[in-house]
Amino acid sequence: MGDSMTEKIPLLTATNVSVSYGQRQTVHDLSLNFPENQITAIMGPSGCGKSTFLRCLNRSNDLLPDVHVGGEIRFRGDDIYQKKVNPVVLRTKIGMVYQQPTPFPFSIYDNVAFSQRMLGLHDRKMIREIVETSLQQAAIWDEVKDRLDTPAQALSGGQQQRICLASVLAAKPEVILLDEPTSALDPIASAKIEATLIELKKLYTIIIVTHNLQQASRISDQVAFLLNGQLVETGPTAAFFMNPREQATSDYLNGKFG
Amino acid sequence: MKPNPLFTRSKEIRQDNWGRWLCYISVSILLLLVVTIIYFISSKGIQTFTKNHVSVWSFLTTADWNTGSLNGKADLGALALMTTSFVTTMLAAALATPLAFVIGIYVVALQPKFGQKFVQPIIELLLGIPSVVYGFIGLTVLVPIIRRHFGGTGFGILAGALILALMILPTITSLAIESMRSVDPSYQKFAYTLGCTRWQVIYHVILRISAKKLVVAVIYGVARAFGEALAVQMVIGNTVQFATNLVSPTATLTSKLTTDIGNTIDGTLPNNALWTLALILLLISLAFNLIVKGFTKGDRSA
């Protein structure tokens, strides 16, 4: 397992993480490291616990009732589940983009400015700068720069998703979590998001949940394969796709299930 | 010869036609009812001006109400009635709205489980209490308390507004809950991810997105308060005059109607004058409806 993290220090580490909803355990004893400035793809069939695991990484699971997270998740060495952690600040450091693009029913500008305003920034010039940079990083600036005052929901699905990405970037995160960000989008819009992510990994650490094998092979540096809430295999992307070590992995890659 | 199956009329087709006609007839009855009510009240209401030659201007701008004398000389001014109606209603809305919104936030965003199980049924229970019961409580509990603590007779705008506030609280609350609940939960999820505290999510996401519908909820509450008659009549004092303070007896459009309608003879000036009050009420509730329409126009989520 350990070969993927030899060159880089992991920014985020998960050790023996278990998650249960009420009585039902959906993630079992999962350990995984996320190296800085790399894209990690978490794959697996529907219901394998990959989204649940992803949500643990920025404590969005806190918002759901009856969720219990065991094990340890460390961000820059600090256990993010210890009492003195402020989950609100943590979520600005580790942002999340969801499957369905959900920009607020506000203008494009207000959407992207939202997080900074919530953090208490009121300097218009600074907000404007952050909005512009974030939209540029999300590769949608050119498409919307002339209509920042129009409703974000009037945009196409792919554009809305990139507005959401820009909103997350505006909070100045270090890690970006993406939960099947392109599964509601057409292939062209998906390709644009993928290109954007490859560009963004220079600045951020990216963790993406996907069940699209091609997508994982195109953009990720490291892959983790989950089955029934357990980590089956993880490793550098090329090795993972060329020479899977586990039978379950090669079955999955060959389309025998999933 | 066998009949051509293409030309048969099946039972299902007949059912279809029958259903369509049933709908047409029901809608027509409804339209007819609305038109006749408006026509009836208008035709009765304008007789004060056409038959009894009271000037519209003085009716709307003077405050003396004296239908009394037998020779037909009368002072008819509805200004005091209208003013009291407005002041009482606005005061009631001002009292009920903050409370309703806070309860709404509690039920939708803070304790959805407990809210749905206990708070909402209680609110619905309040909606079902007949207005005469509210009036009776006002008369026996509220008026004496006000008399003791604020002086006067206890009857007046304060008593009326408090009772109305209690009556419109469930209306505004249940509409507010509905509006806030209609805000897509994925917005809340996304807002938390962007580093919002719970209060920020409530204020900047839930309240901001449902703002228009919340205004409509208040307008519905105001409309209900404005049209409420019985409970108000029991605590307002029923004297047609400008209230000098919140505890002096006065009267509203509706309370005047309920008080006097049994004591007048059809076709006479006192009777016609009451119809004119009814017409004013009708016009004002139409105005409330138009305001609501204007507010919800172009709102895709409504």
Task: Annotate the secondary structure layout.
The complex is a heterodimer of chains A (258) and B (302).
Chain A: E1 10-21, E2 24-35, E3 39-43, H1 50-56, E4 67-75, E5 78-79, H2 87-93, E6 94-97, H3 108-118, H4 124-137, H5 141-144, H6 157-170, E7 175-179, H7 187-200, E8 205-209, H8 213-219, E9 222-227, E10 230-236, H9 237-242, H10 247-253
Parallel strand pairs in A: 3-8, 3-9, 6-7, 7-8
Antiparallel strand pairs in A: 1-2, 1-4, 4-5, 9-10
Helix pairs in contact in A: 3-4, 3-6, 4-6, 6-7
Chain B: H1 11-45, H2 47-50, H3 56-61, E1 65-66, E2 75-76, H4 79-110, H5 112-128, H6 131-150, H7 157-181, H8 185-193, H9 198-209, H10 211-227, H11 230-236, H12 253-260, H13 269-296
Helix pairs in contact in B: 1-13, 4-5, 4-7, 4-10, 5-7, 6-7, 6-11, 7-10, 7-11, 8-9, 10-13, 11-12, 12-13
Would you summarize the structure shown here?
With 258 residues, chain A is an alpha/beta fold. Chain A contains 10 helices and 10 strands.
Structure write-up:
The complex is a heterodimer of chains A (258) and B (302). In chain A, 35% of the residues lie in helices and 26% in strands. Chain A is of the alpha/beta class and 258 residues long. Chain A has one domain (2-253): 3-Layer(aba) Sandwich (Rossmann fold). In chain A, a hairpin with a 2-residue loop joins strand 1 (10-21) and strand 2. Chain B has a domain at 77-269: MetI-like fold, CATH 1.10.3720. In chain B, a hairpin with an 8-residue loop joins strand 1 (65-66) and strand 2 (75-76). Chain B is flat. The model of chain B has no long low-confidence stretch (mean pLDDT 90). Chains A and B meet through helix 2, helix 3 and helix 6 of A and helix 8 and helix 9 of B.
